[in-house]
Amino acid sequence: MPLLEVKNLNKIYELGFIRKKYIHAVKNISFSMEQGEIVSLVGESGSGKTTTAKMILGLVKPTSGEIIIDGTKLEEYFKNIDTLRELRRKVHAIFQDPFASYNPFYPIDRVLHQAIKLIGFDPASSEARELMEEALRNVGLDPKMILGKYPHQLSGGEKQRIMVARCWLLMPKLIIADEPVSMIDASTRGGVIKLFEKLRKVQNTSIIFITHDMGLAYYISDRILIMHLGEIVEEGTPDDIISNPKHNYTKRLIASIPTLYKKWEDLEKVKV
Amino acid sequence: MKNLILNLENVKAYYMIANKFVKAVDGVSLEIRDEILGIVGESGSGKSTLTNVMLMSIKRPLTFVDGNVKLFSNGDVIELSSMSREELQKKIWGREISIIPQSAMNALMPTKRIKSYILDVMRSHFDKIEDEEIIKKAIDRFEEIGISGEYINRYPFELSGGMKQRAVIAVATLLNPRVLIADEPTSALDVATQKMVLATIKELKDKGIVKSIVFITHDIATVRQIAERIVVMYAGKIVEEGNMDEVILDPLHPYTKGLLYSVVTPEPEVRKRGIINIPGTPPDLTDPPPCCRFYPRCPSRMEICEKEEPELININQRKVACFLYEKR
Lengths: 272, 328
Known about the structure:
The complex is a heterodimer of chains A (272) and B (328). By secondary structure, chain A is an alpha/beta fold. Chain A has helices at 49-57, 74-77, 81-90, 109-118, 126-138, 143-146, 156-170, 186-203, 214-220, 238-243, 248-256; strands spanning 4-15, 21-33, 38-42, 64-69, 72-73, 91-94, 174-178, 206-211, 223-228, 231-236. Chain B has 328 residues and is of the alpha/beta class. Chain B has one domain (4-107, 178-320): P-loop containing nucleotide triphosphate hydrolases (Rossmann fold), CATH 3.40.50.300. Helix content of chain B is 30%, strand content 25%. Chain B has 10 helices and 12 strands. Chain B has helices at residues 47-55, 85-92, 114-125, 131-144, 161-172, 191-206, 220-226, 244-249, 254-261, 268-273; strands at residues 4-17, 20-33, 36-40, 62-73, 76-79, 97-100, 179-183, 212-217, 229-234, 237-243, 313-315, 318-320. In chain B, the strands form 2 sheets. Chain B has an 8-stranded mixed beta sheet, with helices on both faces. In chain B, helix 5 (161-172) runs parallel beside helix 6. The interface between A and B is large, with 39 and 47 residues.
C-alpha cells in the first residue's frame, strides 16, 4: 500500500465578487509515493506546487479529487480532534521562511514543546527534556546554546534545523518540505540538505520536496515530478529527467540551467 | 600571453566607519588581460568593493589606503590611482572602463525613455553632442547585441527583465570601453533569460566591442559558462586564481573546494562527489584574524595557519594562498 495517494486532484481558486475570475491552480494531478521515498515537485512560481502541498496538509480544500494518506482519506482525519492529532503526527511540514515559522514572542522551545505534547509527553518532564536535547543534537545543534533563546537570536539555518529537529521527536511518516533551503546561505544549505538524507536513512521517512531548484531536486530525490501551469507534465528518476527530458518545458528548463562541470556548447547559438 | 590591460598592485581599500577600518579589499594584486575574467566569493568577500577600486571610484567611507592601479592603453600606461575624480570621470569612466553595477536594470527610472538615458550618458562625456547621430549609433549598438533598435524609444517598464539588462549593457558599452565590469549581471533573472544575457555578454567580447570583461558573481555555475579564468576571493583577499576548467576540476584552496562542493547543479558529477558545507561564518573584517583568514573555518588547518598569513604563490599557472602548498 502506498503511503500517499493523490487521485485526480483539482483546485480552482475563485477571485472577484461580481465578475468572477477562476484560476485553475492544480489541474487533475495524480501520483503516489511509497514509505521511504523522496519525491520532488519541481516547477516555476505559479506552477501549482505549493497549492498541491497545502492540499495534502489539509490547509487548502481541494475542489475535487482524493488524497489518501496511510490508507485513510484526508477528510476522515478531520472528523475529530484525535484523528486530527494523528494526522499532524503522521505528516509534518517545513516551510520556506524559517522566520515566519516561529512566534517572535516565545522562546524557540515552544515549537519543540508542541511536538512533545503531540506525542503525549509533558513538556516539563525530564524525559521530555532529554528527548528535546537528543533531537537537537541529531540536527547538529548544541542544546545548551539553543534552548531558551528567542527566534531573533538564531540564524535562518539554525531555525530551519530546529524545524527538522521536530521531525526527530514526532517521527512523522511523511514530511512536506516547501523550499526548505531557498532562504538560507549557500554555504549552510548543504548541511540542511544532509539532515533530510539522515532522517530518511534512520527513520525511513518519506519526503516531498517542493522546489524550483532542479539541482537540489536532482541531488536528493528518488523521483522527480515536473509541474507546469498546474499539471504534472513529466515524471521520472533524476537521471532520466536530466539526461532525457521529454516534455518541451522540461527540455527548455534543463537546457538553461548552468552546469558546473560541463560548459555549454550552445551558448553561441542562443537567439538573442 | 595575452595583452595586459588593467593591473592592480597590492591594493588596499578600507571602509572607514566610526574610527574603525573595514578591510574590504586587503592587499589584492591582479592582472586583467584580454579575456573574460570571473571573480567569485560569498557576500561580504570584497568583490563589489574591488570593482570600485578597478574604476578608482573611491567615495567616502571607502578609502584607498595603499597600492596602485594601472591601465594599459595602446602602449601608454595610465596610473588611475593618481588621477583626480574629475579626470577619471572625463577620460576613463565609460571610455576606457565601464561598469554595469549590481541591479542596474532596476535603477532605470520608469518615466524616462531608454533614449534619454543614452543622451544623458553622452552629455556627461562630451561638451557638444549631435542627438541624431548618437541615436543612430545607439540603434546600431542595440542591433549589434541582438535587440531591436526601436526599443530605445520605449520606457523601462515596457521591457522585460532580460531586455532591460541588455539595454543597460548596450548603454554601458556605447563608447567601446576597453574593460567592462559586470557586477552580478544575471542574478535577478530566471534561468532562461539568464542564458540569453550571458550570450549577449560573451558576444561583446567575441565581436571585439570590449577587450576584457570582469564578471563578478557568487554563482560559479553561471560564470563558468563564459569566463576563461577565475579568481576566488575570501574576506578581502584572493585565495585562488587560475584557468577556469583547472580550478573547477581540481580546486586547491580548501575554501574554493568548499565553495564548489556546496553548489548543487543537475549533473551526475554532483551526486558522485556529494555536497559539503563550510561551517561558521566569514570573519569580521574590522578585526580579521592575523593568520590565514580562512583558518577558523578550514577543514584542513595546520599549526602554522594560526600563526602566519599565507602568501599567494604560483603553482604551475595557478595561484593559491594556502600553507598546504607552500614548501618549507
